[in-house]
């Protein structure tokens, strides 16, 4: 390796003049080709959205007629959307999803950040064991817990409440690990100075550590929120009352109730997809960065 | 700690530092590094307590009560035939439906993990070639990941519709006979895989793109000066550099695919004839449509055993490779 690096400057001097025209010619061509391939795939990736949108804008008879057409002969209509919004519970379910996901995210952030801070900074008896147990728990697949959790929620009389939706979803062991690693990198000098001035641990945590950790807290929040917003299995089991369902679970009941109302099915799906897609359009950079930093820590 | 450590990398011999300057630093270091005090013990556990409470109540306790439940004949109707030892496990190991669901799950894991890793890598490598409008590609490939499984399932069930669906319409126009996407046992799992790839490949794509952008640009510059072309650079620089990322993505993908439930349940409901029923769906059905919580808990633990086994194999393989 060392010799390689040393020989490079010499190579550059020798080859650069002759190489540059050749490389300039080659690079754009392959780049154009790559752009075309990626563009075709990107369009293919958008087809399900486009097809769902066009279907939702048709009348039911038009949506169910053969041969299928992209542009309906009788023109576009908003009937499906008005029917779904008028009769269905989609606004209620959206609010339920918003409330439970926000609560899950807030509780997860508070409890994960404080345990991660303790493990990163405070020298207490048993902390290695605690970290070991938290890391080991990453391997437990949530579906294994649904039967005993259902039983537990039933005996606590919490089935069909927001509590049943929120409480079991706030344990995100990989996120504790992600936060601990971030706290480890914050220089200790600031905290030491504050400690010498007699500040309490809690004060140091809330006024020094947390403000410095905004990027990682945002990343964790985004990751947890998306997961909670889209979670299906547990909310599907924990709630039956139509007014308490989250959006994904509510949509499942619509599908069985509407049967062959294709335009209305697609209108509901699009309305359900809308909030997160809008959020994504506005916060694309933060969301992508957040997923890239927390993603490998575990889903 | 850090006040001692900082001079070290600069190469200065630490003991030679002026004694007058280090004394305040030393005192604060001593404060933080002192042996465990009662106060630290109390503070540490106080900060850990909220997480620990949730952890014990909603993870540890269900693990224990589930393990016990798997040894009983507990039913959703409240009836309980009491402690029956390992009878549920014995029954499960002789249950052909359980084995079939397990087989379906492994099959899905195999045929979904390969495209979810390979396509993600290919897309990331293409986009990373310095294409214009990076945000646009990320938007297209990643946005499906933000959809709920129910939305994805509604989209694809509609496109798989035998007469009115987009897929068969395209096939017929190309002169290919239509396919019974969701009613042919040989095709249904592939239909689910196509939907799954569309839905989640953007996540792995983002992870790969981030990893590619972390590779120092000098590596490529040096290689191109040495005359290495695009393909050569990809295979001898990018791929080896992506090794650790790939190992992590594959592990996470396998563990995620083994837990498949949502999209299968919603698109095919496990059909036709149980051809796509996953093990998680079998757990769900044994408990909530068969009312047999004890039996369902036993299958949960068999599934957990499988996950543990695969995780241990992966730890073993990655250890061996890195050694």
Please summarize what this structure is.
The complex is a heterodimer of chains A (299) and B (323). By secondary structure, chain A is an all-alpha fold.
Topology pattern of chain A, helix = H, strand = E: HHHHHHHHHHHHHHH
Major sheet summary line of chain B: 2 strands, antiparallel
CATH architecture of the largest domain in chain A: Orthogonal Bundle
Give a short account of the largest sheet of chain A: none
Helical fraction of chain B: over 70%
Description:
The complex is a heterodimer of chains A (299) and B (323). By secondary structure, chain A is mainly α. Chain A is built from 15 helices and no strands. Helix content of chain A is 77%, strand content 0%. The longest helix of chain A is centred in the first third of the chain and has 55 residues, at 2-56. The two termini of chain A are 37 Å apart. Chain B is an all-alpha fold. Chain B has two domains: 1-34, no CATH class; 90-322, MetI-like fold (Orthogonal Bundle). Helices cover 72% and strands 2% of the residues of chain B. Chain B contains 16 helices and two strands. In chain B, strands 1-2 form a two-stranded antiparallel sheet. Chain B starts with a helix and ends with a helix. Mean pLDDT of chain B is 83; it is low at 1-31.
